[in-house]
Amino acid sequence: MARPRILVVGAGFAGVECVRRLERRLQPGEAEISLVTPFSYQLYLPLLPQVASGVLTPQSVAVSLRRSAKHRTRIIPGGAIGVDPKAKICVIRKITGETLDQPYDYIVLAPGSVTRTFDIPGLVEHARGMKTLAEAAYIRDHVISQLDLADASDDEDERASRLRFVVVGGGYAGTETAACLQRITTNAIKRYPRLDPRQIKWHLIDIAPKLMPELGDKLGRAALQILQKRGIEVSLGVSIAEAGPDKVTFTDGRVLPCRTLIWTAGVAASPLVGTLDAETERGRLLVTPELTVPGMDGVFALGDAAAVPDLAKGEGAFCPPTAQHAMRQGPRLADNIVASLRNQPLAPYIHKDLGLVVDLGGRDAVSKPLGIELRGLPAQVVARGYHWSALRTNVAKTRVLTNWMLNAVAGDDFVRTGFQAQKAATLKDFEYTDAYLTPEQVRAHTASLTVRG
Asked: Where does the FAD/NAD(P)-binding domain start and stop, copy by copy (predicted)?
């Protein structure tokens, strides 16, 4: 009898934790496990701003999937671009561009999220995100190159546009990105004697009336004060009306010279969700507390792409798309697949939120562990301690800790890697959001397989 085929889509926190639990709980002959991911590493997303600022090396936050002692999962290098739940086939585009039709008995959908964009003129052509390792490395090169080019220029207008940086999004990603990158430009300017430090201007804007409202009014104001004290101009109730190659227009009418626009204004579930033609909640797959997709046999979903009921908060609440929940949903879903294989009852996912941490670089941070409000060095200790403990391997922990210590002792460096292409990449180039099929295309594709078979 053929072994049941378990296909996991996505190597984020949710997908990797699910795979690791399956490897521990299932006997080698009990099921066949496959993982679809374009890269054979798990990205520790919360530390990307520190990669962009050069505090951490890219390798530090990219944890190899092949270091597990029990590793026996087949890794398919590519991305899922469509799922047909009736035919039980997942359409995969490999990194070579070839299409693979992968049958499954159980599928775990953990494709994560992509940067949420809006129909703003010039946005996708001129903005950069902070969602992938490539984007973080690209932004670091780009920011340092603006300092180099401004230093070499005698045109004051060009200098003004190159030394103004705009970050859109007052959530964790945007706030940490602005804070970490502002520190590197402030420290770097000492190495550019031809530049006036007062010319470097950082703007953080958000359409919301408050900065990081999840932290509460008190800590939100504390974070705002830290940013303003550093010279970052924070504008709330404002967004981008238009983006150009050397200027941005705000919705309040301001037009600013700018060649660096970083867009972190929220995330949306992976477009893969739309290929299933299933019920959604604000774009995320609606699932049961047991993480199953109603009406679809053998289909499970979790993480950023799933609207998981938050039983700890009560009826009508859904778990926020955070690493904290994804890391815990993965093992629960794996246990439910094992239970399904062994004809045992499935258990619901329940987890009480442990709090939030925001690392603003240096000794600056605001944290709210278990509802306790902290700021300054104590908050920084909690923030970095949490991130360090969440890293999955001892190798990753050693690398991150070494990087932090080296940065604290030796300070920043301002070297461009040279990987930046002459042609600036767009959001779509980094996140491949235009690669997915429609539900109709998926059904037509799987139907053609049946005809050929």
From this structure: 5-330
